[in-house]
Design a protein that fits this description.
There is one protein chain. By secondary structure, the chain is an alpha+beta fold. It contains 1 helix and 7 strands. Strands 1, 2, 3, 4, 5, 6 and 7 form a 7-stranded mixed sheet that branches.
Protein backbone atom coordinates (compact mmCIF):
# COMPACT_ATOMS: atom_id res chain seq x y z
CA UNK A 1 0.00 0.00 0.00
CA UNK A 2 1.31 3.42 -0.89
CA UNK A 3 -0.23 6.83 -0.41
CA UNK A 4 1.01 10.19 -1.65
CA UNK A 5 0.08 13.77 -0.88
CA UNK A 6 1.36 16.41 -3.27
CA UNK A 7 1.83 20.12 -2.53
CA UNK A 8 3.10 22.13 -5.50
CA UNK A 9 3.81 25.85 -5.95
CA UNK A 10 4.18 27.52 -9.33
CA UNK A 11 5.54 30.76 -10.65
CA UNK A 12 6.09 31.77 -14.23
CA UNK A 13 6.11 34.60 -16.72
CA UNK A 14 5.14 34.25 -20.36
CA UNK A 15 5.00 36.51 -23.38
CA UNK A 16 2.68 34.87 -25.93
CA UNK A 17 3.96 35.88 -29.34
CA UNK A 18 4.39 32.40 -30.74
CA UNK A 19 2.43 29.31 -29.77
CA UNK A 20 4.55 26.31 -30.72
CA UNK A 21 7.18 24.96 -28.37
CA UNK A 22 9.57 22.12 -27.64
CA UNK A 23 9.63 21.40 -23.89
CA UNK A 24 12.50 19.34 -22.50
CA UNK A 25 12.57 18.35 -18.82
CA UNK A 26 16.04 17.34 -17.64
CA UNK A 27 17.50 15.74 -14.54
CA UNK A 28 21.29 15.75 -14.17
CA UNK A 29 21.55 16.92 -17.80
CA UNK A 30 19.59 13.93 -19.16
CA UNK A 31 16.21 14.47 -20.82
CA UNK A 32 13.59 12.59 -18.76
CA UNK A 33 10.56 13.93 -20.62
CA UNK A 34 9.88 15.80 -23.86
CA UNK A 35 6.66 17.41 -25.06
CA UNK A 36 6.16 19.29 -28.32
CA UNK A 37 3.39 21.46 -29.71
CA UNK A 38 4.11 22.17 -33.37
CA UNK A 39 2.54 24.20 -36.17
CA UNK A 40 3.30 24.04 -39.87
CA UNK A 41 5.93 26.58 -40.99
CA UNK A 42 6.70 27.74 -37.44
CA UNK A 43 9.91 26.98 -35.59
CA UNK A 44 9.18 25.91 -32.01
CA UNK A 45 10.51 27.86 -29.07
CA UNK A 46 12.80 25.65 -27.00
CA UNK A 47 11.92 25.51 -23.31
CA UNK A 48 14.36 23.74 -21.02
CA UNK A 49 13.33 22.72 -17.51
CA UNK A 50 16.00 21.44 -15.12
CA UNK A 51 15.03 19.47 -12.02
CA UNK A 52 17.34 20.10 -9.08
CA UNK A 53 18.53 17.27 -6.81
CA UNK A 54 15.67 15.76 -4.85
CA UNK A 55 15.68 16.27 -1.07
CA UNK A 56 14.39 13.45 1.14
CA UNK A 57 13.23 13.86 4.75
CA UNK A 58 12.02 11.15 7.07
CA UNK A 59 12.10 7.39 7.18
CA UNK A 60 12.68 5.92 3.72
CA UNK A 61 15.14 3.18 4.64
CA UNK A 62 13.20 0.67 6.80
CA UNK A 63 12.11 -2.43 4.84
CA UNK A 64 8.42 -2.73 5.91
CA UNK A 65 7.32 0.83 6.63
CA UNK A 66 8.38 4.08 5.03
CA UNK A 67 7.01 7.54 5.77
CA UNK A 68 8.94 10.38 4.21
CA UNK A 69 8.73 13.61 2.24
CA UNK A 70 10.34 14.40 -1.09
CA UNK A 71 11.00 18.09 -1.81
CA UNK A 72 11.53 19.02 -5.45
CA UNK A 73 12.36 22.15 -7.38
CA UNK A 74 12.52 22.75 -11.11
CA UNK A 75 13.42 25.94 -12.97
CA UNK A 76 12.57 26.50 -16.61
CA UNK A 77 13.38 29.05 -19.28
CA UNK A 78 13.83 29.62 -22.99
CA UNK A 79 17.40 30.00 -24.13
CA UNK A 80 18.07 33.62 -25.04
CA UNK A 81 16.72 34.42 -28.49
CA UNK A 82 17.74 37.44 -30.54
CA UNK A 83 14.38 38.19 -32.17
CA UNK A 84 12.20 40.45 -30.06
CA UNK A 85 8.96 38.81 -31.15
CA UNK A 86 9.74 35.27 -29.90
CA UNK A 87 7.98 33.91 -26.82
CA UNK A 88 9.62 34.12 -23.44
CA UNK A 89 8.65 31.62 -20.77
CA UNK A 90 10.46 31.29 -17.48
CA UNK A 91 9.90 30.46 -13.87
CA UNK A 92 9.86 27.48 -11.60
CA UNK A 93 7.93 24.73 -9.94
CA UNK A 94 8.57 23.54 -6.43
CA UNK A 95 6.71 21.32 -4.07
CA UNK A 96 6.75 18.36 -1.77
CA UNK A 97 5.28 14.90 -1.81
CA UNK A 98 4.45 13.17 1.45
CA UNK A 99 4.48 9.41 1.09
CA UNK A 100 3.68 6.42 3.23
CA UNK A 101 4.53 2.91 2.07
CA UNK A 102 3.51 -0.16 4.04
CA UNK A 103 4.93 -3.53 3.03
CA UNK A 104 8.14 -4.78 1.49
CA UNK A 105 9.66 -2.06 -0.64
CA UNK A 106 13.30 -1.29 -1.32
CA UNK A 107 14.76 2.18 -0.79
CA UNK A 108 15.42 2.40 -4.53
CA UNK A 109 11.80 1.54 -5.41
CA UNK A 110 10.39 3.95 -2.80
CA UNK A 111 12.49 6.81 -4.15
CA UNK A 112 11.59 5.91 -7.73
CA UNK A 113 7.84 6.02 -6.91
CA UNK A 114 7.93 9.54 -5.43
CA UNK A 115 10.32 10.83 -8.10
CA UNK A 116 7.79 9.70 -10.72
CA UNK A 117 5.05 11.57 -8.84
CA UNK A 118 7.16 14.74 -8.76
CA UNK A 119 7.87 14.48 -12.50
CA UNK A 120 4.13 14.08 -13.16
CA UNK A 121 3.44 17.26 -11.14
CA UNK A 122 6.10 19.22 -13.01
CA UNK A 123 4.87 17.98 -16.41
CA UNK A 124 1.26 18.76 -15.56
CA UNK A 125 2.04 22.30 -14.49
CA UNK A 126 4.19 23.15 -17.50
CA UNK A 127 1.92 21.60 -20.12
CA UNK A 128 -1.29 22.97 -18.56
CA UNK A 129 0.24 26.45 -18.36
CA UNK A 130 1.45 26.38 -21.96
CA UNK A 131 -1.89 25.07 -23.27
CA UNK A 132 -3.83 27.68 -21.29
CA UNK A 133 -1.64 30.48 -22.62
CA UNK A 134 -1.89 29.19 -26.20
CA UNK A 135 -5.71 29.20 -25.97
CA UNK A 136 -5.51 32.62 -24.74
Amino acid sequence: KASFHNNTNYFSSYNKDQGCYDLKIQYHGKIVYRHQFLRINEAPVEIIAEIEDYQYKGNYYLPLYKKFTLDYKCSFACPKLKEDNISNFSGGVDGSIESEIIGICSVRKAKMLVEEKSLESIKKHLIDTLEKLNRG
